[in-house]
Design a protein that fits this description.
The complex is a heterodimer of chains A (357) and B (272). Chain A has 15 helices and 2 strands. Chain A has helices spanning 2-7, 11-34, 42-54, 64-98, 110-124, 130-136, 140-160, 168-191, 195-206, 214-241, 245-250, 255-277, 283-295, 299-323, 332-350; strands spanning 161-162, 165-166. In chain A, helix 5 (110-124) runs antiparallel to helix 9 and helix 7 packs antiparallel against helix 12 (255-277). The mean pLDDT of chain A is 88. Chain B has 12 helices and 10 strands. Chain B has helices at 15-23, 57-62, 77-85, 99-113, 116-138, 165-172, 190-196, 214-217, 221-224, 227-231, 239-243, 249-260; strands at 10-13, 30-33, 67-71, 90-93, 145-151, 157-160, 176-177, 185-188, 200-205, 234-238. The radius of gyration of chain B is 20 Å and the shape is globular. Chain B starts with 9 loop residues before the first strand and ends in a 12-residue tail after the last helix. The model of chain B has no long low-confidence stretch (mean pLDDT 90). The chains are: A mainly alpha (357), B alpha/beta (272).
């Protein structure tokens, strides 16, 4: 804040940064469509993409370029954009709402709830839940993870809300208790698992965009759309909450409505992201902080920038995950943490004292 | 059985299948293998498409396969769907922890590579060796109770229960699994170890620090107090050899039987 006071209004700089991030996102998109273990030239990619867009696919079986572009890379890239944007915007909203620099989707129970849902699907899907999960096929696990995330957030919200006021402190503490409980149930299920299920759980918890399909893209898209529509309306309120909840009320912000909408919207959005991609840590915390350092804490720019930044980070990490050990694939959570961790530490070292909200 | 011409560029998913393909002399047509394909050692020089349950569709397509030969349980389903859409035939081989299961694997691999005659010879040899071994161990009256230890990490014993490859190989070798009542690999309490009364401990040997030594195993008080501990009877064998359920399994079971029953006369194998 001190720096902001010295330099005054940073909205010009923020607009410039947003434009730069938009250009970077386009570049990352193109790069991610081109990178991969199957070498397909730009020309082949372009003609396959054009044929697909215009519905003029040549008769007969699809070409290798068409399969790689349409079935594999395009859904994967779009899912990366959606998941990265959802996680980063979700993190920024929660950090503002909770006035806590460590807030991320884990703080409202999304991570532990989704993990419990996923483990239930992986382990009981072979047993008592087989009749339910069998017909759902590849979509059973995401649905369970999503339901777990929403249920955990809903429980926490009800728990922390008394007389129409949500206590942030109660929510944080109850979240810790709920995470422990979910961890206990998860642990109990893991105890009864076989080594195949155990490996499935491990890989799920490291995250991957590898399972991207068009139906999955279609199922996260509405959440991204809803969040993007809501963000402009939330920015002013979040800016006021920085001053404190009472102060925000005096400024005419309906704090409770903002909290309820923010928490439930972010829970649904990040729950959907975690459901399709597994747990991809780090994005929701680091992207908003980097942006605060670069363009200041004004949520009108911060939230939009977080969307761009999260999408870019995830696209770059996924390119690394697909190409580093090709033809195998590195879980993306490893890449985001390995690339982002040291970078974030370096920024912190250079600008100590700047990290307060 | 498989209505496709002999494949020329095959991705093999599953250690036992890779081993069979090499035994049938088909290594020249393998373009990539998975992480579990560790034997023969040359197989590790092939491109590695990763863990069998987290295959990447583009990674597999990158080696331009005309067929994918995968053990049951390979996936994920979304990857298999994309590969199917890419018109790459996928042959899924069932996993059974029996001699008949191994014979089935050999015949299927042979059919895929168009090496039916060599596969029939290998399969018949395995079946005959398996039958001879079964006859050889049939007369054992006092079956050894064996505790298979998957890991000793932190002094905690992770033991094999029913429905595991370890359980199956113990039965092939004429021994009994000392722990029953659960499926899969589970941590055992000290008292459960005492109650299991194992006559011997079986573990996997490896080059790394995870390999289990007798000093380490019998330093655990509960294990030291069992018949196995008093006799300091620990058998270690290579993990894939012991549990792979591939062409070397009969030979592994025979080695295990010989280690457990030193006086036993067993017929020498032809194929193993």
């Amino acid at each position: 804040m001190r720096r902001a006071a010295e330099t005054g209004d940073r909205s010009g700089r923020a607009r410039l940064a947003l434009a730069a991030l938009g250009l970077l996102l386009v570049a990352a998109l193109l790069g991610a469509l081109d990178a991969g273990p199957v070498p397909v030239g730009w020309r082949a990619l372009g003609s396959a993409g054009w044929a697909w867009l215009t519905g003029n696919a040549p008769p007969g079986p699809p070409s290798m370029a068409a399969i790689v572009l349409i079935d594999i890379r395009l859904p994967r890239v779009l899912m990366g954009v959606a998941v990265g944007a959802l996680l980063a915007i979700g993190g920024a909203v929660l950090q503002g709402l909770f006035r806590n620099p460590l807030a991320d989707p884990g703080i409202i129970g999304v991570s532990s709830g989704a993990a419990l849902g996923a483990v239930v699907a992986i382990i009981l899907g072979d047993g008592v839940l087989a009749p339910v999960l069998g017909p759902l096929g590849a979509y059973g696990l995401p649905l369970f993870a999503f339901a777990g995330a929403l249920a955990a957030t809903f429980l926490l919200y009800r728990f922390a809300t008394v007389g129409g006021r949500t206590s942030v402190a109660t929510m944080l503490l109850a979240g810790i208790a709920l995470a422990a409980l979910a961890g206990a149930v998860t642990g109990f299920l893991i105890f009864g698992s076989n080594d195949r299920q155990l490996r499935d759980i491990t890989f799920w918890s490291l995250g991957s965009l590898g399972g991207a399909t068009w139906p999955k893209v279609a199922s996260v898209a509405p959440f991204l759309a809803a969040l993007l529509v809501a963000v402009p309306f939330m920015a002013r309120g979040l800016n006021a909450i920085v001053l404190g909840e009472a102060e925000a009320r005096h400024l005419g912000i309906r704090v409770q409505a903002l909290k309820r909408a923010g928490i439930l919207l972010v829970a649904a959005a990040t729950g959907a992201a975690v459901a399709v991609s597994g747990v991809i840590g780090f994005v929701g915390i680091v992207v908003p902080h980097l942006l605060r350092l670069a363009i200041g804490p004004d949520h009108r720019y911060l939230l939009a920038g977080a969307g761009f930044g999260g999408a870019i980070l995830l696209l770059l990490a996924d390119m690394a995950s697909r190409t580093l050990v090709a033809p195998a694939e590195l879980p993306i959570g490893i890449v985001t943490a390995a690339l982002g961790g040291p970078f974030f530490l370096w920024i912190l070292l250079r600008r100590r004292g700047m990290m307060d909200l | 059985m498989v209505a496709i011409g002999p494949a020329r560029r095959v991705v093999v998913i599953g250690g036992a299948l890779t081993e069979i393909a090499y035994r049938l002399g088909q290594q020249g047509r393998i373009v990539a293998v998975d992480q579990t394909s560790l034997y023969p050692p040359e197989a590790r020089k092939k491109p590695d498409v990763g863990y069998m349950r987290t295959l990447s569709a583009e990674g597999v397509l990158a080696v331009r396969p005309d067929l994918i030969l995968a053990i049951e349980g390979s996936g994920p389903a979304t990857t298999l769907d994309i590969l199917e859409h890419a018109a790459v035939p996928i042959v899924i081989v069932p996993e059974r922890y029996t001699i008949a299961g191994i014979v089935g694997k050999v015949r299927m691999v042979g059919a895929v590579f168009g090496a039916g005659a060599a596969a029939a010879t290998l399969a018949d040899g395995i079946a005959a060796d398996g039958a001879a071994l079964a006859a050889g161990v049939a007369g054992i009256v006092a079956r050894r109770r064996v505790l298979f230890v998957l890991s000793l990490a932190g002094g905690r014993i992770l033991a094999a229960g029913g429905n595991t490859a370890a359980n199956a190989i113990l039965h092939l070798a004429g021994a009994a699994n000392a722990v029953t009542g659960f499926d899969g690999y589970k941590p055992l309490s000290a008292e459960a170890i005492l109650a299991a009364r194992p006559d011997a401990v079986l573990a996997m040997s490896g080059a790394g620090p995870e390999s289990i030594t007798a000093a380490e195993a019998f330093a655990i008080p509960a294990l030291a107090a069992t018949p196995a501990g008093r006799a300091r009877r620990l058998v270690t064998m290579d993990g894939l050899y012991l549990l792979g359920f591939g062409p070397r399994t009969v030979s592994a079971a025979r080695d295990l039987a010989a280690a457990l029953y030193p006086g036993l006369r067993l017929p020498a194998g032809s194929a193993g």
